[in-house]
Amino acid sequence: MEKAFAEIIKQIGENPDRDGLIDTPKRAAKAFEFLTEGYRRDVDQVVNGALFESDFNEMVVVSGIELYSLCEHHMLPFIGQCHVAYIPNGKVLGLSKVARIVDLYARRLQIQEGLTTQIANTMMDVTNAEGVGVIIEARHMCMMMRGVEKQNSVMRTSAMLGAFKENQATRNEFLSLIRKP
User: Fold this and answer.
1) Tens digit of pLDDT for each residue in 123-132?
2) Which of the following is catalytic: 82, 83, 112, 130?
3) 57, 125, 162, 165: which could join 131 in a potential S-S bond, CB 3.0 to 4.6 Å?
4) pLDDT of res. 181
5) Catalytic residue from among 7, 73, 113, 166
């Protein structure tokens, strides 16, 4: 990967041997490995057995989970937040594991629509919940830094499964709980 970044630096007309760029290929490779670490992890590793018996059967909402991802079309960042809700069915997931599931998929090349669906499906599979709702709100650098250059655009995506899809009242409760005051 270092060689590839050195070649990119050359291709844009820069000298990879100049003082400020000498270690850039190494640093860029290290950063890119971190930004795509989701390929080197799996759900079982992330959840790590943190699923606990519980008779709690009301909605659990974790909102405002920061996310940083790279779009698969331009490999530019999209940055935002994710809101995840589920209705337990005999088991609850450790709180930090919800955020870790978001990170697992966010740290891969993809589109926001796919990320939203992956998180929802994984939450449903892991928890066997009565339902799962996921909403992502993100700003895309490919829209802001290039192309149409729209600085204030926000993309919102949602995935509703089980009770969140079938029951309007459940969906409305989720939406009301994540609204900012």
Assistant:
1) 999 999 999 9
2) 112
3) 162
4) 60
5) 73
> Is position 83 annotated as part of the catalytic site?
no
Catalogue all structural domains in the chain, each as residue range(s) with its CATH number: 2-35 (no CATH), 49-178 (3.30.1130.10)
In this structure, the number of other CB atoms found within 10 A of the CB of residue 118 comes to 20
Round the CA-based radius of gyration of the chain to a whole number and report it.
19
- Which of 7, 33, 72, 113 is the catalytic position? 72
Paired sense of beta strands 131-140 and 77-87, if any: antiparallel
DSSP track, 61-119: EEEEEEEEEEETTT--EEEEEEEEEEE-SSEEE-HHHHHHHHHHHHTSEE-HHHHHHHH
43-60 per-position pLDDT tens digit:
999 999 999 999 999 999
Task: State which residues of the chain have pLDDT below 70.
Answer: 181
Q: Any catalytic annotation for residue 140?
A: yes
pLDDT at residue 180, as a whole number:
72
- Kindly list the distances between the CA atom of residue 136 and the CA atoms of 20, 58, 61, 99, in Å, as whole numbers in the listed order: 37, 22, 13, 13
pLDDT at 22: 96
What is the pLDDT at residue 97?
Answer: 98
Q: How many CB atoms lie within 10 A of CB 169?
A: 8
Contact 63, 133 (CB under 8 A): no
